[in-house]
Amino acid sequence: METIGEHNTVFPKLNVEEEPELGVTEIESMCMNCQENGMTRLLLTEIPFYKQVVIMSFSCEHCGYENNEIQPGGEIAPKGITICTKVTTARDLNRRVVKSDFSSIRIEELDFEIPAQSQKGEVTTIEGIIDRVIRGLEQDQPVRRIQHPEAAEKIDEFVTNLQGLKDLNSPFTLALSDISGNSFIENPNAPLKDPATTISHFKRTKEQNHLLGIFTHDEVDECPADAGSSPKKPKLAEVPEEVDSLLKPIKEGAWTLEELQGEVLQFQTQCPECSAQCETNMKVTKIPHFKEVVIMATVCDNCGSRTNEVKPGGGIEEQGVKIEVTVRGKIDFSRDVLKSESCNLLVRELDCEVGAGALGGRFTTIEGLLTAMREQLIESTGMFMDSNDAETKERMDKFFGQLDEAIAGNKQLTIVLDDPSGNSYVQSLNDDGTPDTALRIIRYHRSYEQNEEMGLNDMKTENYGEEAMEEGAGDN
Predict the structure, then answer these.
(1) For labelling alongside 116, which of 148, 179, 367, 393 has CA 20 to 30 A away?
(2) How many CA atoms within 13 Å lie on the side-chain side of 359?
(3) Over the stretch 29-58, which tens digit does the pLDDT of each residue have?
């Protein structure tokens, strides 16, 4: 068995020039087709502009059976994802799709669904998904036509309908839902907005977390008390809080509130790139004419990775905010910007929109925001850059040329920040904080859907103890 060579990380980056150095692990394993021994090859690598993956390939020299699959090797995304794409053209059928084991796929027009965990993760296309379903349905049709002719006739009819989707007899909608958040459908219009696709994120339920193997400490400690169940594990001796705690408690009177707010706090964490131990700096600061924010910055000495994140110090505002700023030159590039995690970013002149979760929360400048947006677009569209057609490459080159021209200060732009939570901010050039001539601030009432996404519709902030008291009184 050949093992992975010496690398700085477990998942070396996939690079054509360095490909001979990438080690492949070979494991002899049983063929599920003929029960003879075949060979499984494993490659742990990092796809540029995507994520860490485990590529698996099985081949059997006895019967010729082959099987390939891909699984994410990095962290599970904090939220699940739902992607709905309207397929109307042959180009839409060629959209590339990355789906994990936990992806479920539904075609509304046929009332057809592929359940999660019924297929292995793979990199394919929308047409490839339909082809795989057709192959699976036709696999046992010869025997089924003899033993169950009525069922075989219905399956033939359904296969004809699936073939009609490939022939685009009528438009159809493909919905991909993945609780792990590790799925993706290509945008052929990138970096422009995809009018045929809608993407939404959702919080996983407790059952979905358990399906992914995610448990809280309390859930791990719980043990069923039913008769016949295994005895509860002995509880380990508790370590004093001042010894075991990651964040050490501050003794009463040691720091005043003013001193604490001006202090930079440090705590150990793992680097998101190489998983080495590093330190995160955290500070609470006040933005003039706005509010308090928590700034966190991580620098890794091992790989040099630098990340920063900003969290608003207060809660969600009563109204959402839309901020429009006209970038006329160098003076506007120096404006401070606070973008929250729920804020959408739009550049009107380039017809480019970046979703809320793309750039995360950050405190930067207009110039830094445009630069981060450029890097994010390269990462999100660069996975299939080598296999794009000439038209797509020409469009991408033209777009990035215009964006580079704008970052250099040679092109006027209008940037729109739309934040339903109201926790985003752009610095005004006026001393009193009122909007200047190039800054426009609009406050609006959130829609029901926006409140639902932030969990506000089911939130009760007044008299929330009355129901519990009434239930207690009723029990008595």
Answers:
(1) 148
(2) 27
(3) 999 888 899 999 888 876 554 567 788 888
Structure tokens at 147: 């033993």
The answer to whether residues 291 and 385 touch, using CB atoms and an 8 Å cutoff, is: no
Could you read off the pLDDT of 71-108 as tens digits, one per residue?
777 677 788 889 999 999 988 998 888 888 888 999 98
- Using DSSP's 3-state secondary structure scheme, residue 143 falls into helix
Distance (Å, whole) CA 306 – CA 294: 17
**pLDDT (average), residues 312-322:** 81
- Peptide bond between residue 191 and the one before it cis (omega within 30 degrees of 0): yes
Q: By the 8 A CB rule, do 461 and 431 touch?
A: no
- Backbone conformation region of residue 289, classed left if phi is above 0, alpha if psi is from -120 to 50, else beta: left
- List b or e across 422-446, with b for residues whose CB sees 16 or more CB atoms inside 10 angstroms: bbbbbbbeeeeeeeeebbeeeeeeb
What the block records as the tokens of 229 is: 């169940």
- Span 148-179, pLDDT tens digits: 889 889 999 999 999 999 888 889 999 999 99
Report the phi/psi class of residue 161: left, alpha or beta, with left for phi > 0 and alpha for psi in -120 to 50: alpha
Work out the angle between the directed axes of helices 390-407 and 366-381 (0-180°, nearest 10): 170
In this structure, what token pair is assigned to residue 192?
A: 């422009």
Tell me the longest C-alpha to C-alpha distance in the chain. Answer: 85
- Model pLDDT, residue 447: 87
E strands in 35-136: 37-46, 52-59, 66-72, 80-87, 96-99, 103-107, 112-114, 122-125
Q: What is the pLDDT of residue 5?
A: 38
31 contacts 65 by C-beta, under 8 angstroms = yes
Condensed to tens digits (0 to 9), the pLDDT of residues 105-125 reads 999 888 889 998 888 777 788
Q: Which residue's structure tokens are 């050039």?
A: 429
Coil, helix or strand at residue 56: strand
